[in-house]
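Chapter summary example.
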Amino acid sequence: MFETMSASLPYSETVRVNQIGAGLSRRLEPDAEARQRIARALDLQGLDAFAVEIEVKPTPSSSEWTMKGRVTAHAIQTCGLTLEPLPVEVDRRFSIQLAEAEPQQTDEIEVTLEEEDADLIEDGKIDLGQYAVEQLALSLDPFPRKPGAQFVQPEEPAEISPFAALKALKPQDDQG
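The structure predicted for these 176 residues follows.
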């Protein structure tokens, strides 16, 4: 999803699972430089405002958590038809199940039935910033279009016979 997922994420705010306790609440507001990195990663013309309220709470299961939050942003996408700036207001709530990946001797990770719909936590860390950017990306229209912008199909050229194309390649002074 991001241009360089492994090298460096556009925004990262990590918490350790052992810091959550009975629950953890955070408000994330990336600075202007981080918003520029996020805008580049999400192919936006601009990201003037971006804030995320996140709450992480343990579930009755000892190795699972629920992350709930709200993403608000003022972004500027590019209209897919006119290529003009298209301001977008984002206000989205989200909920994500998290489960801790259990360390295993092999390279394979075994997922139990309860964990199927959950994101796996590795190394005991949750990157709240990565989830914030992901939720912003999910809130954006993948094919943004300004109101009233319409695609007009260009006229098709007259059909050219393949033999006409070959005739055009043949030298004109050839008599024989």
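To summarize the output: The mean pLDDT is 82.
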